[in-house]
Design goal:
Blueprint lengths: L1 E5 L24 E9 L10 E6 L8 E4 L5 E7 L2 E8 L3 E3 L7 E5 L4 E11 L1 E8 L10 E6 L13 E4 L5 E7 L2 E8 L6 E5 L4 H4 L1 E5 L1 E2 L12 E3 L4 E3 L2 E2 L1 E13 L6 E11 L9 E3 L4 E7 L2 E11 L10 E13 L4 E7 L3 E9 L10 E7 L23 E4 L5 E7 L2 E9 L8 E7 L2 E2 L5 E3 L4 E8 L3 E8 L10 E6 L11 E4 L5 E7 L2 E8 L11 H4 L5 E5 L4 E9 L6
Parallel strand pairs: 1-32, 2-9, 10-19, 10-20, 21-27, 28-36, 37-43, 41-43
Antiparallel strand pairs: 2-5, 3-4, 3-6, 6-8, 7-9, 10-13, 11-12, 11-14, 14-17, 14-18, 15-16, 16-21, 21-24, 22-23, 22-25, 25-26, 26-27, 28-31, 29-30, 29-32, 32-35, 33-34, 33-36, 37-40, 38-39, 38-41, 41-42
């Protein structure tokens, strides 16, 4: 499964000037941006909104900041020409209409950009009470609300939020975007050791602890129930902490690098709790590690090594993830184990255009990511090549001739990511990934034997869906969340999904789509993970169908699906 992400690390800059004539610094033109911030639902102006703009060049970098007046207006003068990212902040509101909590504006040389309308929507809130097994309130508990499923499945790069219980056990998590959230309570004391201990051999019986608990009262994430949050509304989630026996896992690691830094992650295979999902990392010191409060379950260990650091010259540290063995079984006793690196495999590959033409491959990155894991890398704004980027990823640049390689890839099943930092590539998509002549675009590829070579075919003729979102009266709807969901045959392919937000005229464009059949749906508030099984059944009979061929284009008018209870 593959998808291409087009980032905005670089953009096209247009410089105009008469031949043979160069402006002196004092004569350089200055530009401006002016507009207003309004409530997305009512259209009323919003005051006291902090508006920040960040330029993407050394000359325009900023940041520039101001607060809107009573009429919601703002104005920035004396700006350099270029592209600016806009971010809005106001208590009780979140920025609407952007897939990354921000909006991009382009100011041409000599331009005074006016009439800009930015929208914010009322934030949602989750409140509740955390109790112990006796029904008494528990103070000092950190409560976290995380969007259900991959973060990018819900518009706005939804990051969730957190709060802490007071002396009454009450918590409040504000500034939430519409969505469905998994609410988890983390007892404040490390391991949340209870006064009660097991009789007899403590090492064998473990310690009774208040475990990290999901709403409505389970330590198992698979049994958690998501809490729906709507714009401007308050949701409630009261639950009690779960008591469980927990154990200590400690030992040593062979082969820890003498230079740089290393960290150990304990993650679940079955059973277990939040320490298993990469939420808890311990530095490897003196080749040893020590985890406390580990619930019964099967775990595996991963070691991440870091060499070097980020620099102003855009250099990145050398980061590698090494799978360790053996698998750790936690049952009814503490565990001591010696871990060692499991040798990885060298994976090489080459990108090529299906037409055989030359291409500047150095502007791309490729990543191998463990298949079947949750994803935080699917993009929407400016995306052309669908992508998978997540845990277990191994990243590499691409050479001028299109070749790349990943070193020491642990055994497992993987999917391929191709990422570009140039939004001019929005019509490109990965057409095929071949291994020994077999197409593994849909299935992914298995690592576990000898060296592998991937033949990656790229096509510049991605399909396009463009259209307008309208309400029940046929009027255009701005800031609607529009998704293109593939038919059942391609539901497992990440490159077949795309998300956009309609502009002020209700218009949207999706480019670089993999050919196939799609259902296009538009939402006032998109609460559900639209990649999950059964999503289309929830909206049977709604939306529009688009059959796309390579290089094809489909125009649609999509009726908005409003929040439940709204007209």
């Amino acid at each position: 499964m593959v998808r291409w992400l087009v980032g905005f690390l670089c953009g096209a800059a247009i410089v105009a000037g008469a031949a043979g004539q160069v402006d002196s610094p004092a004569e350089k033109q200055k530009q401006s941006i002016e507009g207003k911030v309004v409530d997305a639902r009512s259209g009323e102006p919003l005051r006291k909104v902090q508006v920040q703009i960040f330029g993407r060049s050394a000359e325009s970098q900023g940041p520039h900041s101001m607060v809107t007046g009573a009429d919601g207006t703002f104005e920035f003068d004396g700006l350099a020409a270029g592209r600016y990212t806009v971010m809005l902040e106001r208590a009780g509101y979140v920025q609407a209409g952007s897939s990354a909590e921000q909006k991009t504006l382009t100011v041409q040389a000599g331009q005074n950009l006016s009439g800009v309308v930015l929208r914010m929507q009322a934030a949602g809130i989750i409140t509740g009470k955390i109790m112990d097994v006796d029904g008494d309130p528990v103070a000092g508990v950190n409560v976290n609300a995380a969007v259900e499923g991959p973060r990018s499945m819900v518009p706005g790069a939804n990051r969730g939020g957190n709060g802490t219980t007071n002396d009454l056990g009450e918590y409040r998590i504000a500034e939430l975007r519409p969505g469905k959230y998994l609410v988890q309570a983390h007892p404040s004391r490390r391991g949340a050791m209870a006064a009660e201990r097991g009789a007899g051999n403590e090492k064998a019986t473990g310690r009774l602890i208040e475990a990290a608990t999901y709403y409505p009262g389970t330590a198992d994430k698979g049994q958690a129930i998501a809490v729906p949050v709507r714009s401007g509304e308050e949701a409630s989630a009261n639950f009690a902490l779960v008591m469980s026996r927990a154990y200590r896992v400690r030992g040593t690691v062979a082969g820890v690098p003498s230079e740089g830094m290393a960290q150990l992650i304990l993650e679940t295979v079955s059973g277990g709790h939040e320490v298993a999902n990469g939420n808890r990392q311990l530095s490897v010191a003196a080749n040893s590690f020590d985890f406390e409060g580990v619930l019964p379950g099967t775990y595996r260990a991963m070691m991440i090594t870091f060499k070097g650091m980020y620099t102003a010259q855009q250099q990145r540290p050398d980061i590698q993830m090494v799978q360790l063995g053996p698998v750790i079984e936690v049952d009814k006793a503490d565990v001591e184990v010696q871990l060692h690196a499991q040798p990885g495999v060298l994976v090489k590959g080459k990108l090529r255009l299906d037409t055989g033409e030359k291409f500047d491959w150095t502007q791309l990155n490729v990543t191998a990511r463990a298949a079947g894991e949750g994803d935080e890398g699917w993009s929407s704004e400016g995306a052309a090549f669908a992508a998978i980027l997540g845990r277990g990823g191994t990243n590499s640049g691409v050479n001028a001739d299109g070749t790349f390689e990943w070193k020491e890839v642990p055994a497992g099943n993987y999917e391929l990511l191709v990422a570009a930092h140039n939004d001019r590539l929005h019509d490109y998509f990965v057409k095929a990934v071949k291994l020994n002549g077999a197409d593994v675009t849909d299935s992914g590829f298995a690592v576990g034997g000898g060296e592998l070579f991937l033949d990656v075919v790229v096509c510049a003729k991605g399909a396009v869906i463009e259209g307008t979102v309208v309400d029940s009266k046929g009027q255009p709807v701005p800031d609607a969340f529009v998704v293109a969901v593939p038919d059942t045959e391609k539901r497992a392919r990440a490159d077949s999904y795309q998300q956009q937000v309609s502009d002020g005229a209700g218009h949207f464009v999706m480019r670089g789509l993999n050919p196939g059949s799609f259902r296009v749906l538009a939402f006032e508030e998109l609460l559900d993970d639209w990649h999950k099984t059964g999503f289309l059944k929830m909206y049977a009979g709604k939306g529009e169908t688009a059959e796309l061929e390579e290089g094809g284009k489909k125009s649609v008018t999509v009726k908005i699906i409003v929040a439940e209870g709204e007209q």
